[in-house]
Amino acid sequence: MLTYPRSFSHIGLSVPNLEEAVKFYTDVFGWYVIMEPSDVKNDDTPIGQMCRDVFGNDWEKFRIAHLSTGDRIGIEMFEFPENEQPENNFEYWKTGIFHFCIQDPDIEGIVEKIKQHGGKQRMPIREYYPGEKPFKMVYVEDPFGNIFEIYTHSYELTYSEGAY
Questions:
Q1: DSSP annotation string for 109-146
Q2: Phi and psi at residue 122, to the nearest 5°
Q3: pLDDT tens-digit map of 32-84
Q4: DSSP assigned state of 161
Q5: What is the pTM of this model?
Q6: How far apart are CA 147 and CA 109, in angstroms?
Q7: Would you call 154 helix, strand, or coil by DSSP?
Q8: Per-position DSSP letters for 36-101, written without gaps between them
Q9: CA-CA distance, 111 to 115, in Å (whole number)?
């Protein structure tokens, strides 16, 4: 049996305020809500059992919402009671996921929109191969401390032959 490339389904984000996060991602990126914010309880419903399987039994309830990007990638947002903002939200040297990336050809415009909606720009917008590949990138942060990157071009174009 051959190994074939699987599709990316969704990413889960933990946020301190679900309504504010849904508003940020729908207003800034145009993502659409596929499930409005709702409560999940540690009970015997199918979703209660599913979350107990994932989180264990030491929780009472949390809130969840589902969004989708223009290319049908799911964004699953969680608001847990008594959530904590890490002291350092960019520990890139530790194993695990430390960012995700969004593509927008108007990188300057989307960075300004992110900042206008309470996010942060973490570095200058850079074009690393001027004259060869007019591709730009930047790291940013949503108002809730989630770090992500913006690319102007597709992953395949950015890292195809000659990227380094």
A1: HHHHHHHHTT-EE-S--EEEETTTEEEEEEEEE-TTS-
A2: -95, -10
A3: 999 999 999 999 999 999 999 999 999 999 999 999 999 999 999 999 998 99
A4: T
A5: 0.91
A6: 18
A7: coil
A8: EEEEEESSSSHHHHHHHHHH-S---EEEEEEEE-TT--EEEEEE-TT----S-S--TTSSS---EE
A9: 6
